[in-house]
Amino acid sequence: MTRPVRLIATDLDGTLLHSDQTVSPRTRAALNAARAAGIHIVPVTARQPRGVQRIAEMAGFEGWALCGNGAHCVHLTTGETLFTAHVEVEAQTRLALLLSERVPDVRFASVRDGGEVFVAQTDYAALATFEDHKRDPSDMGQHALSTVLDAPSLKFIVRHPTLTPRQLLAEVQALGVLGFAVTHSGAPFLEVLAEGVSKAWGLAHLCTHLGLEAAEVLAFGDATNDAELLAWAGRGVAVANAEPEALAAASEVTLSNDEDGVALVVERLLGLN
């Protein structure tokens, strides 16, 4: 027997948000209806809290949010942190030194202190735009690699001026080193997390806190970093514009983000259309 949905977990960029970074009136209305029905609405995103706050008012997010690909769970109203998971210094140092030998011109950045502190290697900022990390590149700093590596990271960023994230991922995997998880979200860099961490890992921990099970979760996503989430949830839905990994992991596909695919599924869930 199918369990009723008690929590909706949704990615933001490329999934809930239109391509212009807005939440449509239809999507906001669907989320409001779900909240009125007693369903938890949880953004699950690669963004840090400051990037989620930019969307919170448009989407009506007021409760828990999973940031940094599941590594950081924070309450958007109270500021309470439920948990964090960090890449250890030893693991990120081993990765950075080995990859630098293998791939010239690779650059790194460390996201710390609840996502508020961004310590970037010299020349990293020259590769970045505001939308990459939802912060001005001039605020990223120009640090020696030793400084970038000297404290644990909520998220450890790996970037190259010419290699795509998929190409760079292949280079990381070829190193054969352990101690971290690595993914990408459609942004022009890799995102390295603590070992075992993913959006599914983070949501499982939040659901335990809320007394919920995977069978009671409806999840939406579009990118490679959403694949574990879509596979873990009782009902995993990929938007039509999703990457192959997300499409393969999902149990169904809805319309694209720009066609309000999330809203369509939520409306049908609630009997609104």
TrEMBL record:
Which InterPro entries does the entry mention?
A: Cof, HAD-like_sf, HAD-SF_hydro_IIB, HAD_sf
Gene Ontology, cellular component aspect: cytosol
What PANTHER family does the entry give? HAD SUPERFAMILY HYDROLASE-LIKE, TYPE 3, PHOSPHOSERINE PHOSPHATASE
- Source species of the chain: Deinococcus puniceus
Identify this protein by name: Hydrolase
| Keywords (A to Z) from UniProt | Hydrolase
Q: Which Pfam families match?
A: Hydrolase_3 (PF08282)
Which top-rank group of organisms is this from? Bacteria
